[in-house]
Structure prediction request, 440 residues.
Amino acid sequence: MKYFKSILSILAIVAVFKAYSQSEQTPWLYTMSANSINLLGDGVESGLNFGGPVFGLSRHLTGGLSVGSQFGLGQVDNFTNSYTYTSLDGFFKMNLAKGSFTPYLLAGYGFSLFSDGEEREGFFPSSETSKTYIGGIGFNVFTNGKIDINVQSSYRRMNERGGYNHLQHLVGIGYGFGSLDSDKDGVPDKKDNCPTVPGLKEFDGCPDTDGDGIIDKEDKCPDSAGSPEFQGCNDTDGDGIPDPDDSCPDKPGTLEMYGCPDSDGDGLADPSDFCKDEAGPAENNGCPWPDDDKDGVPNKDDLCPDEQGTASNNGCPELSSEIVETLNEFGSRIYFPANSAQIIGKKTRDVLEQIKTVLVENPKGNIVIEGYTSSDGDEDYNVTLSNKRAEAVMSYLIHLGIPADRLEVQGYGESDPVGDNSKPKGRALNRRVQFKPKRN
Prediction:
């Protein structure tokens, strides 16, 4: 009993300071052994008695601790007496190391029977059965992780009559099974961060399919090797945008264009740009609007798409500033009597002929005829009078053959004087017409 208590104490200490498993990958261990019995005590023959077999089954619990049971048979001779030996035990086993060579301590409790062949009523199966305390040592030598060779010696103390304290020695083989490595990758489920997918030990059981050093569950591109900078993906075109986020992975681009280039700089990525080498608006798929007359005003905005014009005149032609200046030089020589819109005098008619000639030579431009007055009279009256003067000039030019649709009139009254209204000469200068381009 004292020996058994010592074994239990050692097991308790080892359980605290050692935490090696029977086999984390194979928690169940089945053993089959040959055994020998060595009787102890006074009045016994102390030689070895060989027999067998002994069958054992144990289960890893935690750390290096396992629990199990074993059943053994044998034949024991003691001088002239011969006994059939039977044992049935439960035990705890504590591994002292881990690896291919694993020493262990054993402690348990069971029943032992030395039967002489006479029928006796009682438990297991007769009254010769004795409760037995067990303590022992042993070691396993694992050959491939599942098959092992087992050597064990235990002291068995019987506390009832009809039996002998004895040593039991076992030599046998074991088979580990019941794997706790669900994905069979050699990493136990307890330590496997990816227990359902075969992986690598260096990655705690997780796979790295593309071998880039980034495990698949953290790798945005698990099937192609990449860099940690891009979470396991590549940047084929070197534009700083990883391929999965790059709409043009083979051509350098910008983040704003989702990794695609914008060759013409019009704000539209090349794959969406129908004219990628020529800047154009997005509403026209990146192409410039057509401008058939090449006047810089696109057809869609050009009121005269077949004639070159100016942007200020919506693409239609207008008289140049030089022509307008010439017309105004002529217009400064057209005089009206005070309070009158009549065109009088040969000089005035000659001037109008010259204006007509300029307009005929420049058929692409239209004009606005602006009428003015001096400050004599009421302001509203002067506006009306200035309009009549402009209409008089327009009527005369139409009479000379200028199309009416090229002409427009506007009266401004006494505004914008060019002479001093306090003097007769100044008032005469203010009774005038001026010209400006007519725009659409």
User: Anything to note?
Assistant: Residues 39 and 46 are 5 Å apart (CA to CA). The longest strand covers residues 48-62.
